[in-house]
Amino acid sequence: MKKILVLTSGGDAPGMNTALRGIIREASFNDIHVYAAYDGYKGLVEGNILPLTNQDIAGTLQLGGTILGTARFPRFKEKPYLMKAYQNLQHRDIEGMIVIGGNGSLAGAHALHEETGIPVVGIPGSIDNDLHGTDMCLGVDTALNTIVYNVDKIRDTASSHGRLFVIEVMGRDCGYLALVSGISCGAVTALIPENQDTFDKTAFCNLIYKAFRRSKKHAIVIKAEGFTPFSDEELGQELSEYLGERGYEHLDIRFTKLGHIQRGGSPSAFDRVLGSKLGIHAVRQLMAGAKDVMVGLVRNEITTCPLADVGKGKRERILSLYQEYMAQEFLMAKKLTPGS
């Protein structure tokens, strides 16, 4: 293999540039020329493709985002776009591809291989951490550190004013960020989409009530953006009524969204090492003849998973983590008499 192409697609994640660096270095050691499609699949279809060298990635190790640019392009999986992308690859004699991105991006990579046969290796780059086949996606550790850092700041003002803060974090339909940051920040609980179908609003309100009755002066709840049974307004109304009937009518309840600050920033040491490893092994997989796989981290070892399987997600693992660390207090709240 003499020519490969790399692109970053979908939502950006800290550590993508580190993965690019690993790809370039491993490729150069093996006399492989690397090309980049700028702005993801959109650039691949439009022919926005240029050589990528060691000079291009010099000094990017500490940068968040992606120097290649990225874009969401859901129509890429349609045959005309797949074939146009393949023609652009053939025109440059490119023999393999590496795609850094999340669920939708890797589904696009799988579709390209299925339609054209070109070897494709995926690297899981997504702060959502919702991909099957890897314990950690690139960018998750940095996002968690950002969340914890900012929740600690919010706790300062929450404790000063005796407030209850419900803080929304990213994750799309996956509750990993909310759950792990909730554990890390000492939140009363985390509201996650994995168990929203069985969410008991009375038990939730009672859980908050019991926390304050145990002499808590303030409280933090972490809510995943994919937790949707109630709007912030509805949840706030439920809490206000329940707590007000029990002597906490003056409790100030605030809702805060951390937003896109979770995507940005210099990657953590963990993400820098992970990105380097995944980039290096992605090139090695292509050299070894892999055609339709994702490289990932499982039990601290670099492994591979079929691209067709990465969309299975992590629901059961997240529910297991929730049961281990947070479910007990919710169960106790259900058993307690609401007025006690």
Automatic annotation (TrEMBL):
Active site: D128 (proton acceptor)
One Gene Ontology term, aspect cellular component: 6-phosphofructokinase complex
Binding site for Mg(2+): N103
Description of activity control: Allosterically activated by ADP and other diphosphonucleosides, and allosterically inhibited by phosphoenolpyruvate.
Keywords noted in UniProt: Allosteric enzyme, ATP-binding, Cytoplasm, Glycolysis, Kinase, Magnesium, Metal-binding, Nucleotide-binding, Transferase
Cofactor: Mg(2+)
GO biological process: canonical glycolysis; fructose 1,6-bisphosphate metabolic process; fructose 6-phosphate metabolic process
Catalytic activity entry: beta-D-fructose 6-phosphate + ATP = beta-D-fructose 1,6-bisphosphate + ADP + H(+)
Family: Belongs to the phosphofructokinase type A (PFKA) family. ATP-dependent PFK group I subfamily. Prokaryotic clade 'B1' sub-subfamily.
Binding residue positions for substrate: S126, I127, D128, R163, M170, G171, R172, E225, R254, H260, I261, Q262, R263
Compartments in which it is found: Cytoplasm
Binding site for ATP: G11, R72, F73, G102, N103, G104, S105
Pfam families, sorted: PFK
Residue numbers binding ADP: R21, G22, I23, I24, R25, R155, R214, K216, K217, H218
Known pathway: Carbohydrate degradation; glycolysis; D-glyceraldehyde 3-phosphate and glycerone phosphate from D-glucose: step 3/4
Protein name in UniProt: ATP-dependent 6-phosphofructokinase
Enzyme Commission number: 2.7.1.11
Job description of the protein: Catalyzes the phosphorylation of D-fructose 6-phosphate to fructose 1,6-bisphosphate by ATP, the first committing step of glycolysis.
